[in-house]
Amino acid sequence: MGIMIKDLIESTDVISVPYKHAEAEDLTMLTKEVVEHVTLPVIDFSLLTSGSADQRSQVIEDLRNACLHWGFFMVTNHGVPESLKEELINSCMNFFDLTPEEKSVYDVENAVDPCILDPIICGTNFNPASESVSFWRDYLRVLVHPAFHSPPKPEGLSEVLSEYSKRTRDITKELLKAIMEGLELEEADIEKSLELKSGVQLFSANLYPPCPHPELAIGLPPHADHGLLTLLMQNDVGGLQIKNKGKWVAVNAIPNCIMVNTGDHMEVLSNGKYKSVLHRAVVNNKETRISLVMTIGPPTMTSVH
């Protein structure tokens, strides 16, 4: 495994980002396209699960509009304690603090291959020998359903990840039920055909350390997600940008919300009505960003993006 960014910047006094003029100019142009910070549509999960009939109907309509016009929305009052989020962030940070030898157990040379479903992999997208603009990200990726997996180190990660996986699976089930109602699809038929109970659930912890030259690097390039829905929580450092109406916009997240976006399988399920939206992660030169990503899809989902 190539040395991870976090280990590299902690083992040397100076680190530079490879420079390739043409690609760096392209990246700068992309960054300049961000014209505003936006607040995504907000879905009150408590009204969906325990509100009145009228309140639930309104939330379903809000979901329909969010999926139709944005492909992204924020879920509040979702029932995941902030303490659980913080425990998981800390546990994942402790994983990245493990020695390179301990982390190398989970290295897969072709981990960027979208057809891989190794239960646990970790790595980096940064190649210090590259002459192109670099991806500035270390990651841990774990298959948590239908069979649960977790690295044994650090202590406590397995327990908190198991709890978080169950809670996000329950949230996703309720969101999908409401989305299906908004699409006027029969819930029982769709759930049976997708076999959601045995569907694939992938967890990714993405670490974006401070970058000395953020204008020459990007955390993750523009991409769309596989699966039905992707759920994301992060620390207080922003970096998510989405493409909406042809423009890149930076997302302002409400504290302790879960950001949700529709994926490729949802686009197919909705017959193209709800698009799998392009998004990316940008880096900064001051603070470490970490994102906790849970992607949920049917058993046939093979991507680990």
UniProtKB/TrEMBL annotation:
Gene3D superfamilies: B-lactam Antibiotic, Isopenicillin N Synthase, Chain. It holds the Pfam family 2OG-FeII_Oxy. Residues 198-298 form the Fe2OG dioxygenase domain. Keywords: Iron, Metal-binding, Oxidoreductase. PROSITE patterns: FE2OG_OXY. One of its GO terms (molecular function) is oxidoreductase activity. Coiled coil: none annotated. The keyword Oxidoreductase applies. PANTHER family: OXOGLUTARATE/IRON-DEPENDENT DIOXYGENASE. Belongs to the iron/ascorbate-dependent oxidoreductase family. This is Fe2OG dioxygenase domain-containing protein. It comes from Papaver atlanticum.
